[in-house]
Amino acid sequence: MQSTHLLFEEPVRMASILEPSKPSFFPAMTKIVGTLGPKSRSVEIISRCLEAGMSVARFDFSWGETEFHQETLNNLKVAIKSTKKLCAVMLDTVGPELQVVNKTEHPISLKADSLVVLTPDQNKEATSNLLPINFGGLSKAVKTGDAIFIGQYLFTGSETTSVWLEVTEVSGDDVVCLIKNSATLSGQLYTLHVSQIRIDLPTLTDKDKEVISTWGVKNNVDFLTLSYTRDAEDVRHARNYLSKLGDLNQTQIFAKIENVEGLIHFDEILQEADGIILSRGNLGIDLPPEKVFLFQKAAVYKCNMVGKPAVVTRVVDSMTDNLRPTRAEATDVANAVLDGSDAILLGAETLRGLYPVETISIVGKICAEAEKVSNQDLHFKKAVKYVGEPMTHLESIASSAVRAAITVKASVIICFTSSGRAARLIAKYRPTMPVISIVVPRLKTNQLRWTFTGAFEVCNARQCLIVRGLFPTLADPRHPAESTGGTNESILKVALDHGKATGVIKPHDHIVVCQKVGNASVVKIIELED
Fold first, then answer.
1. Which of 153, 223, 328, 384 is the least buried, fewest Cβ under 10 Å from its Cβ?
2. Are 418 and 439 in contact (CB under 8 A)?
3. Integer angstrom CA distances of residue 374 from 6, 8, 30, 465
4. Tens digit of pLDDT for each residue in 77-121?
5. Among candidates 396, 480, 471, 416, which has minimal Cα distance to 442?
6. For residue 82, which of 111, 42, 120, 115 has the smallest C-alpha distance?
7. C-alpha distances in Å from residue 120, one per residue of 36, 132, 162, 179, 391
């Protein structure tokens, strides 16, 4: 199964565009994060999402009760067992999110050029002229002329449920606004975003801490996404909190960049976080539209160079209600892949969308096509130049493994690891072939199952599921990490047999193997026989 990737600069035969894509064991190197919700929580639908290519399941606590999310997670466990597809769990915090409080849940009609008052008095009823909100400090944060956006949670832009306001007066705790466009607020949850204004609320709220310390601990979540991350201290505070919660000290923290403040402090946030989520919904409100792509390209590049996952959101919003993406959306997905994104995060499309499975499938196909024309050679050179000399021992091994794999046109790279670090370093250099990470556990009992409450190595394996091109598998626990070379050979044979059975590896393919032999790290090339 030799790689047939093209360089983007090379001419593409127009006829080849009409040729059907060849099926592959790995749908795409780019990973897909799916948000599970009302339209995607049954065992059947989750199983189909896993088969379509979802590798991380996101649980969004901006809405829904803990019991609801637990039932969904229990269904996910059943689906994983039945499909034999691995899936990581991501807990998404609420953060300092401002919300409109509509206790009656009746639709509210807002007319353009009329006035509406935003009040912190949540006892008042929401009307066309008065909207209670869940924050008492808005009047101190805004001034005349500021722009405020109100939209349905995970608004897609196609609804007539989004409204722009302009602050005309601050009266005590109330804020009087001019309605810029007519809209009807209807639905479960409406959020409020003030453009380029700092909201004086903690990034990790008391509600977030309660969810993390109960639901998060119970389910040993793999990823925590920190909504509205504003600076590196936010990440340090969250990590310190997780360190006191047992196994959650291994949970990776992904910082969500949602406003200008996060953009300004991006470099320091990237240094502290384990990964970055470019939350383009809110960011697209804070930034002028013509600047959003610039930030995406710069942010993804920085993530690529330091080897931390970059996740892009809000790509196929229209598929919330439609079976196909728009032309612009399909191109947007491809450009996110060409920019270097590790994963695509689907929100409304799978949470409340009508076609969650089809959305995952189509996004995966677009990613796979874009990967074929990705300029790996240029990326490799940039990554090597960024690391500089002298390289660390691990960096040297990782880059050498990728260079060797490209040179011999290997079908896969196999990496033995217990922490996942070596495999992630290899993936950083964006090889055109899959990296199969064989996670070798340190034997603590006579049995180890892939569960949501598993050992340190199991957690590390699941955390590889958000890294582009990295596909983890768990070795037999009877072959511990401190094993002999002979034991590693037996594990390698099992991995090769599995690769042959699934069609990933074929006779006469070259395989690059990265493993430890004693205290030395070794890269070797294997040519398979018939």
1. 328
2. yes
3. 7, 6, 12, 21
4. 999 999 999 999 999 999 988 889 888 878 889 999 999 999 999
5. 480
6. 42
7. 31, 6, 20, 19, 56
